């Protein structure tokens, strides 16, 4: 959810990542040309952490904490992406009810912002390295909303972004509700700036139906899928930041780099999450 770079097509994305790394002499990222396929359930996984969102009220405080405000208090106004919302922990913006986590974006005047929303995270409460993540969710439909199910390196306070690494299990552009994105970010040491590799897949029912967004993360690969159909693979080595613990984040941004122009008639919209499960 920081400034990011996307391109259509697997070969172009691979070439971009490889070019960035070749220029700086740091690491190798290769993702061979493959057709999407269904993940084989051959490996045995054990559930190590989950939230089924079956207790009504605020999100479980043993699992979740919040990012609050507009980012200015930590020196990144607009959360580094020119976003227009102010994050709160009010029940108007985030609540568990009807067996679902509901993150709600609203058009309203609040602390100098014209929109509110919520961003929750497991930072300091649940961090993990390697495994499989499954998140069943339905996305907001309004133009200008930017939903994300993602992860950041737990050492972000010590090394900052993008050195900590970022894994975006799912994001969606505000102007394109028929596709979803998967992306990884890391530091390009040659330019001391963000390097990324992203892919997307067509999902025209993302805002009308629930889908399961999946991550499989090992010591050498990151794979991203929707409903078992894999569309993203990054192969990495020890020079990348993906060999450390990460934490989960869920949010809806409004406007900004991937939110784009906000529908003038927008009043409110939500992302609903049925469950999140982590296996190792």
Written account of the structure:
It is a single chain. By secondary structure, this protein is mainly beta. The chain is 8% helix and 43% strand. It has 3 helices and 18 strands. The protein has helices at 10-24, 156-159, 256-259, and strands spanning 37-38, 47-51, 65-67, 85-87, 94-97, 100-110, 113-117, 119-121, 131-138, 145-153, 166-171, 179-188, 193-202, 211-217, 221-226, 229-235, 246-254, 268-279. The strands form 2 sheets. Strands 1, 2, 4, 5, 6, 7, 9, 14, 15, 16 and 18 form an 11-stranded mixed beta sheet that branches. Strands 3-8-17-10-11-12-13 form a 7-stranded antiparallel beta sheet. Strand 15 and strand 16 form a beta hairpin. It starts with 9 loop residues before the first helix and ends with a strand. The relative contact order is 0.25. Residues 1-32 have low confidence and may be disordered.
């Amino acid at each position: 959810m920081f400034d990011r770079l996307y391109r259509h097509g697997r070969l172009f994305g691979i070439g971009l990542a490889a070019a960035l790394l070749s220029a700086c002499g740091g690491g190798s990222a290769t993702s061979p040309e493959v057709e999407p396929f269904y993940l084989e359930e051959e490996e045995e996984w054990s559930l190590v952490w989950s939230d089924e969102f079956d207790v009504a009220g605020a999100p479980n405080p043993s699992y979740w904490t919040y990012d609050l405000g507009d980012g200015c208090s930590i020196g990144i106004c607009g959360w580094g992406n020119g976003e227009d919302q102010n994050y709160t922990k009010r029940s108007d913006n985030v609540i568990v009810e009807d067996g679902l986590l509901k993150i709600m974006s609203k058009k309203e005047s609040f602390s100098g912002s014209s929109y509110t929303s919520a961003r929750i995270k497991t930072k300091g409460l649940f961090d993990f390295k390697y495994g499989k993540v499954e998140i069943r969710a339905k996305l907001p439909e309004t133009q200008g909303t930017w939903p994300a199910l993602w992860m950041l390196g737990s050492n972000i306070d010590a090394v900052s972004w993008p050195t900590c690494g970022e894994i975006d299990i799912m994001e969606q552009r505000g102007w394109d509700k028929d596709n979803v994105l998967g992306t990884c970010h890391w530091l390009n040491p040659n330019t001391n700036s963000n390097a990324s590799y992203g892919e997307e897949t067509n999902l025209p029912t993302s805002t009308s139906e629930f889908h399961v967004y999946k991550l499989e993360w090992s010591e050498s690969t990151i794979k991203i899928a929707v409903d078992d159909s894999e569309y993203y693979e990054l192969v990495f080595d020890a020079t990348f930041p993906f060999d450390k613990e990460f934490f989960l984040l869920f949010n809806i941004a409004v406007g900004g780099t991937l939110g784009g122009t906000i529908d003038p008639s927008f009043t409110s919209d939500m992302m609903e999450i049925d469950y999140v499960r982590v296996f190792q």
